[in-house]
Please model this.
Amino acid sequence: MRSGAKAAIVGGAFLVVGGGVVYGGYEMLAGDDSSPAVHTQAAPKRTGPPSGDEVTKTAQAFFDAWSKGDTAAASVLTNNNAAAQTALAGFHDDAHVDKVTITASPATGATVPYTVKAEVAYEGRTAPLTYTSQLTVVRGLTTGKALVDWKPGVVHPQLKAGEKLTTGAAKNPEIEAVDRQGRVLTKEKYPSLGAVLDSLRQRYGAKVNGTPGVELSIESGDAGTPNRTLLTLAKGRAGKLTTTLDADVQAAAEQAVKRFDESSVVAIEPDNGEIRAVADNRKDGFPASLQAAVAPGSTMKIITAAMIVQNGVGGADQPVECPATVPWEGYTFHNLNDFTIPHGTLTDAFARSCNTAFIKPVKPLNGKHIAGTALGQTARDYFGLGQDWKLGGVKSFDGSVPESSGVETAASYIGQGKVQMSPLDMASVSATVINGGFQQPIIVPKALDDRELATAQRLPGALADQLRQMMHAAATNGTAANAMSGVPGPKGAKTGSAEVDRQGKSNSWFTGYGNGLAAAALVQSGGHGGDAAGPIVASVLRAG
Model:
């Protein structure tokens, strides 16, 4: 065909236009050296969020490829081809999942919920597997195509980065965990105990003569983190492990945390440190009850009050100033709604949670001011915080009150700044007050492995009495009174709220004792301590 010709084949594979041939989206033009040059006529790259039609079609194409075991086709439909291909291949090769059916639910925006039904088969053993998850469809940054936003949770909702599904002989022998009265504790009946039971199994399964079964589990890349069992194909022989938990208190804790999302609670028997209940209601499954490391807000005033009394700069019945605000090195601290307490005592300030009374420099009674190390020293020496607690096979965060200076010192007095605690820590603080001395929390008896427990000095009698006086006032006519109204005495409590990383609503904290137990709760973004965390603690205490 000579140059300049115009021709077309209707419905055919090519067009000849102005001396070039357009074929399959490419235009081939003659160059100066008579060699053909190829230039792409790419369609404009799409931008903006995927349309509803794109979301539905992309998700369905991904599900079809995944269910057929075509990992290459499925992974190319994601925005992380390599990671998706590895995970999807492992779904079949490592987890031994087959006969996969995926049913999508109607999309909400760019998010598509779905149900996976499949079969796990390993060495002649099979078990059905069903779960729900969701994915999100996004616009590819370089291609402009609609793609599945790849996350480990696409494969299974409990998967996190660095983890994988695996099926085979269990890593650790099985246990039958029982409470202090011999009642069996299972994940099915007490869902909050999932992480705890997995950890106890890792530590003590062999010690109590259990044998492993065959399981589908989530394997962590961290050797110190136990596998999390998702499905049992064949049971091993469970060794019996006695814990300090109490099934009745645990049941109450499980119900209590259901009231609020992202909530956690711990209950302790004060005179021996035995943990009676630990419960979490969190989307991420993190055991925040034992391992959270966040600012405890005004519940820290228990330790601050102990520091004030022990350093001789105040007392439960001694007068304090509680102005609406107090300056500290260029920063102004406020009370809630700038309230004041005219002519009040330290007990009055504690009961109403007056920030300024715990920050404002108190006229020294012994000729010295409180140093920036005093709060941490009080926390360690009398409350056992910041030490290495050995609960028994379960990890815990044991409190942190670092040395401070400037504004951080003032902030630490009201549980902000660099101070960090978990609900376990604050439950232990209340237990220490009512018991008159620290007993390191435990979840299995020390006799099982003869581990060394953390210790602390007993509270001087006068100090313990004054702390009980202040906590009793808060529980009967202060900020904790409504929550604690139905808890049998002797009782005491402290409310707290703490804003973390400028979140929209503060975390709700509450700790207290009564009816023979001490407990503490944290509700993320729960607001005032008495509104969310308080009712959780009260419910658990009443179950004692």
Summary: Residues 52-68 form the longest helix (17 residues).
